[in-house]
Structures are given as structure tokens and as C-alpha cells.
């Protein structure tokens, strides 16, 4: 069985966010899918199989962390679309049927892929007790995204605070449903990004996710409102980084990035 490891939201290997991708004839037992994801041991492994023609979607798509199945994942969707296009199994637009609804991806001639995701609803909330201590940083504002992705979106004072963060992950796990996204405006937008972020998701078995597409469905409306522009570029990551271009379109957010296959091999299980 063929398995690929794809670095998403980057144009070069060993950067961005790696995802496992397996194209199947049908979904096997959930326990097998979870065991494969645990073996691959990346933030997400995507499993997809083709659907009959004439329906609302072209492929069925599921995502698993090493610990659990998740409702929405951006980078593994990008990785799956990249595999379909590079393998000659798709051109142009691909529609995926997922737990969060139908997700549409569109490949451009320059190699970028744009994903159409639901925009997260942001609700301003008071900072939970212990949040600043768990992060080890001053908190500027907090928004709840529970209706969509189940994260806390936490604004920090500046880019350096985001980059230097070394949070208490056990403490963070008790403060949100899925995880905590920290963000700040870019120190120097001339360097090619408008905001920075990092994502910590210990509740689903991911201490830090290098580049989280789904998080940008919350980051896009937050920074579009703050900066007064609907199209922005985000830089996410700590040791590994990747770039996500966002375009806010009301109830939908377009996420654009590149991907590169770094491993193409056989799964013998």
C-alpha cells in the first residue's frame, strides 16, 4: 500500500507541516486507521478514497492524529490535494467530503493550491484563569472558536513573544477543547507576512503543530478586522515554519499554500 509524506504550506522539503497521505479504495476499520496514524506519528495522517461520479464530492477524506480522529485539518487536506494532482488523479478542482462538510480545493498553474474552508466564528472572552501563567507571556486578548475548531485564539503583545514562547502544555490542555493558538502582528510586514502564530494542541496528541490550516480560519477574520484587509499572509511555526495566504470571503475563508512530497513508499500492514 502506497504512503506519501508531504510537507505542506512550504515549497521546500523539511519545512512546513508534514502529513501522511494514503489513497485507498474504501475506508477500512477505524482501529486500523488510528493505528496507521499512530505509526506514522505526524500531527495528522489523511486517508482518502474516490467517490462515485455525480455526487457532491469527488473523494471522501478523513484525518487522524496519533491519538484521535479530528473534524477539520488544513495541512493534510492540502497534502492530499497535492498528491492527487502530482499523481495525475485530479486536475483543477477537487471536492472532498469530510466530517466538517464538503471542502473544495483548486490547483493553480504556479503549483499553489487554494482550499475553501468555513470561517470560524470568534467570540471575545475573558482570559481563563492560569492562561498567562501556562503560556509564560502577557495576554492581550482572547477569543473562543468553539463553534468551529474548538481552540482559544490568544493575542500576544508582539512577534517576539510568539517566537520565544515555551508554554506549559499540561496546563494548556485544561484550558480549551482542542488547543491554543497564539498570534501577534508581524514586526516587519516588509518581510512577507502580516501576522505570526503558533499552535499547541495537547488534547489531540499534538504538542505543537508546525502550520495549522484550520487555525487560519480563525486567524483570517481576526487579523482582517484588525488590519483592515481581507487578504493577508500568515507565518506559523517554531522550529519549522510555513506560510499560509488567507482571503476572507464572509462565511468562507480561502487558504492558499504549496506542498512538496518528501517520502514516497510502501506501507506493509
Task: Break the fold down into its secondary structure elements and pairings.
Elements: E1 2-8, E2 17-23, H1 30-40, E3 44-50, E4 59-64, E5 69-70, H2 74-86, E6 93-98, E7 101-107, E8 113-118, E9 123-124, H3 131-135, E10 141-144, E11 151-155, H4 159-163, H5 169-173, E12 179-185, E13 195-201, E14 206-209, H6 216-227, E15 231-237, E16 241-249, E17 252-257, E18 259-266
Parallel strand pairs: 2-3, 4-6, 11-12, 13-15
Antiparallel strand pairs: 1-2, 1-18, 3-4, 4-5, 6-7, 7-8, 8-17, 9-10, 10-11, 12-13, 13-14, 15-16, 16-17
Notes on the protein architecture:
This protein has about 270 residues and is of the alpha+beta class. The protein contains six helices and 18 strands. It has an 18-stranded mixed beta sheet that branches. The longest helix has 13 residues. The termini are close together.
